[in-house]
Amino acid sequence: MIYAVIAFGYQLTFATSGTLNFGQGEALMLGALVGLTLVGLGVNYWVMIPIVCIFGFAQGVLVERVGVRPAIKTRSEFGWIMATIALGIIFKNVAENIWGRDDLRFPSPLPEAPIEVLGANVLPMELLVVFGALAMMLLVEVFNRKSIYGKAFVATSNDRDAAGLMGINTGMVITFSYALSSLTAAFAGVLVAPLTLTGATMGAVLGLKAFAVAIIGGLSSGMGVVVGGLILGIAETTTGFYLSTGYKDVPGLVLLLLVLTFKPAGLFGKTAIKKV
């Protein structure tokens, strides 16, 4: 489900601006490291989560203002790609200088003894990841459907030009989508950190796999990224169990290639018709 949460962030920015934050993995990494620092200072894990979310929100605003907005204003097709990649590299270098290059252990807020669920041994933290990820995506969906700001977000997603003509500040909506995208990534970081090692390089693989999930499910479909995350997670787990953990990355990449070949818009995505 972590893949789905990160991929959900990709979908948020693509829906409003047609752009992606290729530093999404670094947003996850920074969230995890900031969370680790706060926990090390004595902040309770549950109190730390909203603080990290605020940090992620601010980081997303920075990425949009510095890397994406100038490219959108100049209608550069590739400027935002290089800008978000460059910012991701900068964030990684900053993290290495502050926290070092060695991976760090993030203490788990829950017992580390596995519990039996439907005949399988599952760590309590793994259950928290699943329910936390679902809760985050549900909150975003409720926000979009019930709040006036969420409706502005949906309107911009449907037709940015028309939304602008109706008086919606589409620039602010795009900024908010990037902020919300980085917030979800930072939240995912503090969820997954206790299950893995925390370090400056932890976001690279997770961000790449989440991008694959977004492509498989469809960048234009929120439900698609959830299903794509489940498909990739099941494929990796099944391959690791029956074959070898060394091959667990293969099925997802093969599926990605198949989707790009036969359904480039994704399993749940809509093919856009561009008039020329």
Automatic annotation (TrEMBL):
It comes from the Bacteria. It comes from Achromobacter insuavis. GO terms for cellular component: plasma membrane. One of its GO terms (molecular function) is transmembrane transporter activity. The lineage of its organism: Bacteria, Pseudomonadati, Pseudomonadota, Betaproteobacteria, Burkholderiales. The chain crosses the membrane at residues 27-57, 78-95, 115-140, 161-180, 186-206, 213-235, 250-269. PANTHER family: AMINO ACID ABC TRANSPORTER PERMEASE PROTEIN, BRANCHED-CHAIN AMINO ACID TRANSPORT SYSTEM PERMEASE PROTEIN LIVH. Keywords: Amino-acid transport, Cell membrane, Membrane, Transmembrane, Transmembrane helix, Transport. It is found in: Cell membrane. GO terms for biological process: amino acid transport. It is a multi-pass membrane protein. Belongs to the binding-protein-dependent transport system permease family. LivHM subfamily. This is High-affinity branched-chain amino acid transport system permease protein LivH. The gene is livH_12.
